[in-house]
Amino acid sequence: MPFEPTGWTREHWENAADDLLLAVRPWASPRGGLICLPGARPSWSGPRSDGLEGYARTFLLAALRVAGAHGEDPHGFLPRYAEGLAAGTEDPVPTGDLSPQAPDAWPLMADVRQAVVESASVAVALRLTRPWLWDTLDDRTRARVVDWLLPALGPSPVDNNWWLFGLTVAGFLQDAGIETERARRTIDRALDRIEQWWLGDGWYSDGPNRAFDHYNAWALHFYPVLHAHLAGDGAMLGRYGPRLHRHLADVTRLFDANGAPLPYGRSLTYRFAAAAAPWLGALTGHTPLTPGATRRLASGTLRHFLDRGATDERGLLTLGWYGACEPAVQGYSGPASPYWASKGFLGLLLPATHPVWTDPEEPLPAETEDAVTTLGPPAMLIQSTAADGLVRLHNHGSNHVDPREDDPGYARFAYSTRTGPAIETADNHFALLIDGAPTRRGPAKPLGHGPGWAASAHTPHPGVRVVSATLVHGRAEVRAHLVVGAPPGTPVRQTGWATDGTVTAQLHPVRGYDVATEAATGPTLAADRSRTHVLEGRTESAESLFVALASVTAEPDPAPVATLADVQITGRTIRVTWENGSTALIGLDPEDL
Q1: In the predicted model, is pLDDT for residue 591 greater than 80?
Q2: How would residue 167 be classed by pLDDT, with cut points 50, 70 and 90?
Q3: Phi, psi at residue 578, to the nearest 5°?
Q4: How far apart are CA 470 and CA 458, in angstroms?
Q5: 448: which strand partners?
């Protein structure tokens, strides 16, 4: 597809930040300690915690806006947040519930652990605006703020990227000369913990459960690199900056030519927070992208969401992807949770004279050529096509942070920038039908990967194992599943891409399937309703192999997917000859389980 620059400048970004910040003003508590946005339900932490979230996450946006303008504050944002800071910490309360007696008070971290999360945004905002806010506060207010922040220096209550919230608070306290030795120990402990999850090639697991998603970019890489940059710690930046650079080489391929980041994982309502890591790479010099490509990616992402209804008629970000989408929202998310998208405005810290703002925009990787990128540690494939700019992710190794859950954001075999995931009925799923009900995928065990392919295994039912592989080229996909241990005659079902009609999806049987139908798959992040192709078959023996060809494309009148590949099967071995004459070979071996 032809390259179309967004045309967005720094002024567009400043105006977007101002609009978002001005829209939340009417929802502030009497002294601004809480920003309690309207919503259908509170988070599981309660409405007071949600009000703190509204304050902290929009304070981060205000800080980026003012710090990027070297203290210029034409809308008077910082005085409001300074007053809110004083009011919120004046007499904190041990509850997440609101009461008329304490309309501005923040919850204590010891009682509401979500406050630990919000302390990081408060700390970054204070660090960025220190000359214009912190240094102007009276000693009593500063002491109360410190008292509220200090519990964040303790061990993380959640064993994943949450360790980095304490690091972030510690970084501010170090800069301010407060509890510096304790802050140093907190930073060292947090970095030691996440090091246990470092798998190389740019990837961490978000905790011990092989959870890979966008938290890698704007949490696990973001906080250490930003801290090192703000602290002027060259040794730390020399260690973590190259990791960010390597990660960006992969993650920037997950952005569609239309600006959409790929929706997989949890907390998708943070939307254009996805631009934070590319901006951070430009800010620190650790990025594979040119300045023009960085602005193209970030501006494309921000504009993508603002043009598609991410804000409601009041200018407030909604809980969803484009518009509101309650079924896709986690229980920990409240009405103000989407404002962690503020991270995506990190580029405002780059001066107006920086090449990211002055160089011409340049195409994204998805716009330049067809590509397949193999992600080793997560055991995933990124597949993009230049003709339509569409990006797909094939998952053979990423699990939910809680592996017992079959979350739509983690358990699907494939995701794309323009489809699903379907929330009610599983798209891109392979299941056995036990007593008429489809099995879950459960945790995926990676079995291997190579150029254009990845394989995994899972146990969908006691005594039954499935070895799965995906091979891709251009827009074509080969999906193979070897079922071991299921009784002969067990029904199986393969679903395809969940589409709302804006793209063309295909699913073609090659081996093992004898029924091809369509089914409704309900709402997705982007649409109220969707449909998918469905293939059905039955196991024939102790081992049964099922193979299909699949495709999703925005090209007009695409050729049938069956014309894009010739698939030959011998026993457990699959040989594919692609349309251009290149070949791929893979064997599915149950002994790998």
Answers
A1: no
A2: very high
A3: -80, 170
A4: 14
A5: 455
User: Which two three-digit tokens encode residue 452?
Assistant: 């254009």
Residue 498, both tokens: 């969940």
593: confidence class by pLDDT, cuts 50, 70, 90:
very low
Length of the chain in residues, anyone? 593
CA quadruple 323, 328, 333, 337: dihedral, nearest 10: -30
- What would you measure as the largest C-alpha separation in the chain, in angstroms? 78
Strands 414-416 and 390-395: antiparallel
447-489: per-residue pLDDT in tens? 999 999 999 999 999 999 999 999 999 999 999 999 999 999 9
Residues 6+ positions from 528 with CB-CB distance below 8 Å: none
Tokens of 529: 């309703």
Among candidate residues 192, 178, 35, 168, the one with its CA nearest the CA of residue 106 = 35
| CA dihedral of 328, 333, 335, 341, whole degrees rounded to 10 | -90
Q: Give the closest residue to 202 by CA, choosing from 240, 256, 161, 235.
A: 240
Its pTM stands at 0.96
- Would you give the DSSP letter of residue 198? E
Instruction: Give the rounded distance of the alpha carbon of 436 from its chain centre.
Output: 34
Q: Which one, of 287, 199, 194, 197, lies nearest residue 242 by Cα?
A: 287
Residue located via tokens 């004459």: 581
The distance of Cα 317 from the centroid of its chain, to the nearest Å, equals 17
Q: One-letter amino acid identity for 407?
A: D
**Which two tokens mark 63?**
């800080």
Q: Are 392 and 384 in contact (CB under 8 A)?
A: yes
Which string of DSSP letters, residue by residue, matches 77-125? HHHHHHHHHHHHHHS-BS-SS--TT-SSPPBPTTT-THHHHHHHHHHHH
d(CA 395, CA 412): 7
Q: Is the peptide bond before 47 cis (omega within 30 degrees of 0)?
A: no
CB atoms within 10 A of CB 559: 13
Q: How confident is the model at residue 496 (pLDDT cuts 50, 70, 90)?
A: very high
**Rounded to 5 degrees, what angle do the CA atoms 379, 385, 388 make?**
135
Contact 163, 133 (CB under 8 A): no
Task: Give the number of other Cβ atoms within 10 Å of residue 569's Cβ.
Answer: 15
SS3 assignment, position 192 = helix
Distances (CA, A) of 175 to 128, 135, 150, 157: 11, 12, 14, 25
Query: Are the CB atoms for 317 and 310 separated by under 8 Å?
Result: yes
